[in-house]
Every structure is written in C-alpha cells, then in structure tokens.
Amino acid sequence: MSQPHALPATACNQPTFISRQALDDKAWDACVTASPQRIVYGYTWYLDAVLPVPDWKWLGLVLPDKRGGYQAVLPVPLRRKKLAGVTCGWVVHQPFFCQFLTVFTVQSIDVMIFLRAVQQRFRYGSRFNLCFQEVLPTHDTSTIRPLITHVLDLSVGYETLSKNYSRDRTQNLRRAQKADWTVTESTDVEPLLTLFRANHADSINGGVADWSYSMLRALCGTLNQRGLATIRYAVCQGRIEAGALFIREGNRIIYLFNAASATGRKRNARTLLIDQVIREYAAKPYLFDFESPEKPSIRDFYRSFGAVDEPYYSLQWSRLTGVEQLMVRIRRLFLK
C-alpha cells in the first residue's frame, strides 16, 4: 500500500474531528476510492458494520478540500472500555475484521498531523493498527509494534505463482485435487460460522463472544448486497468440511475468514479453496491478502504459497493520571 510523502505541518490545514452522524458519506467514500491507499476497511459502510453499537463507534478525522469534499480522512475506531476496573471512557481500539487503517488522501500531506490529533484527543489507545511505509515517530507515551500481513501479486500469472509454492504446498494441493472434494459457492455464511464454532472457537484465548458472530453475519450481508463477498465451501460426501470468505474490492482480494473440520484440515481443503481463487484472478491486477494473524504456524502456511511480507504497525499509548495508573497496578496485583 503506497503512502504519501510527508510535508511540513505548516503546508497543511489541521484536520477536524467529525462525528459519524455528521460525516458526508459520499465525500468520505469518494476520498477512499480515489486514494492510492484504497482498501475496503476504510469505507463508511464497512466501518459501520464492524463497529456495532452500543460499545463501539468511530469518528472521522477529516481534512476538507475547497470544493466541500474531503482531501484526506482517517477513521478513528473507539471502544467503551475499562482497564482493570478503571473506567477510561472511549479508547482507540482496532475492531475485528479490520486488520489496519491509514490516512486515505488524494494528495501528499503530513500524516503526522493526523496521528498527533488522535493522541491529543484520546488519552488511551489500546491498539490502533496503521499501514504506513515507514515507522513514524509519535507521542513520548507511545509504543509501536511492527506487524505483517502476507500478500501475493497475482498479476504475474498462475504459472509463475505456482512455481513459488513450497514443495509441501504443491504436494498437498495435488492431494487435495485428487480427493473427493466438491467446491460450492454460496451467499450463506452460517455453515462457515458453524464450522468455526465447532473446530476453532475453543482455541481462541478468552473465547469468542456471541456478538462477534452477529457482527460477521451483518458484515456478510452488507458485502453480499454490494457484490463484494465470495463464500466457498469444500464438500465431501454431502458434508461441508471447510469454508472461506473472500472480499474483492479495488485491487485487493482479502482472505477474511475461514474454518475447517478435522477432515477438511487433513485433506487440505483450504489449500484447494485458496488455490482456486488464485487461479481465477491470476494474470489480473490484484493483490491477494492473506490477512495474516500473528500465529507462526499460520504465517508459515501462507508463506508456503509464495506470499511476501507487507508491514503495518500497531500503535499504543497511555496518558492516564498517576492515580489511575496506581489503581490499574493495584487491580492487576489482585487479579494475579
């Protein structure tokens, strides 16, 4: 994802916070679409879907243009939160199914004026994932953690892409192709959620709240309405054993969500599902984004397709008062 060159702060007007209700959706989405940073996570309708009320919301940090539109925008996701029993009100927090955000801009600006404004407005940022080409200096109370997703440039064509598969991935793909799989396409996400509940939810630290499933259902409905979602299932002997949800928007195909039974995993169903999408869009100007988690085994799986690292950064900061910090420390001692 390309990022504008930084200009001196004096060359830019200061951005303004605008409530979600007061934003001009058309102007915002037009800015995202026209920007070189374009990605589905930045659209108003997508943010509305992944930030459900009442404990989540988002604000827009906007730099208007002279024609009444927006020349640069930054979504600021918020969550009502307590830290170890201490109420902090609204804190900056990255939502699920939104791997990273950025400053979407149609011209070169100083992105630091946006980050400074967010940190000045909100005393606590528990996790704000941002995609920039370089690690940016921030407030003294900030920490920046580098993260990576993995992407494939599909424009090079399938012959080149398949040659970059690891030896194990090539062998497992052949096994999957010889297996008795039938791949079906659907708009129904429920079988995918059922697979996830039965085979993956228990391994998630802290469990998976019911509202997360409701949110994904609503997001899939929105994506289906806009023709952006592809849901595919691998079926064996009449049973769905694996499934995957892909989003195609702009020049990016995102592998957003997936699940598989023990049979699906053993018989490499997800390898087959991913390879089919890669084949379908090979030699076209798309990036395939694996939306990688931090688990090493999953990263290795994605790298076995020849995917390369694409960096982004998780920003955290705290300006809690001395009393609040003391209360947090005391609370954590009692929780140990």
Structure overview:
With 336 residues, this protein is of the alpha+beta class. The protein has two domains: 9-141 and 319-335, Aminopeptidase (3-Layer(aba) Sandwich), CATH 3.40.630; 151-310, Aminopeptidase. Helix content is 33%, strand content 30%. It is built from eleven helices and 13 strands. The chain has helices at residues 25-34, 44-50, 112-121, 158-163, 167-178, 190-199, 210-225, 262-266, 269-281, 296-303, 322-335; strands spanning 16-18, 56-64, 70-83, 86-93, 104-105, 124-130, 142-153, 182-186, 229-236, 239-249, 252-260, 287-289, 308-318. Strands 1, 2, 3, 4, 5, 6, 7, 8, 9, 10, 11, 12 and 13 form a 13-stranded mixed beta sheet that branches. Strand 3 and strand 4 form a beta hairpin. Helix 2 packs antiparallel against helix 7 and helix 5 (167-178) crosses helix 9 (269-281). The chain is globular, with a radius of gyration of 21 Å. Residues 2-12 have low confidence and may be disordered.
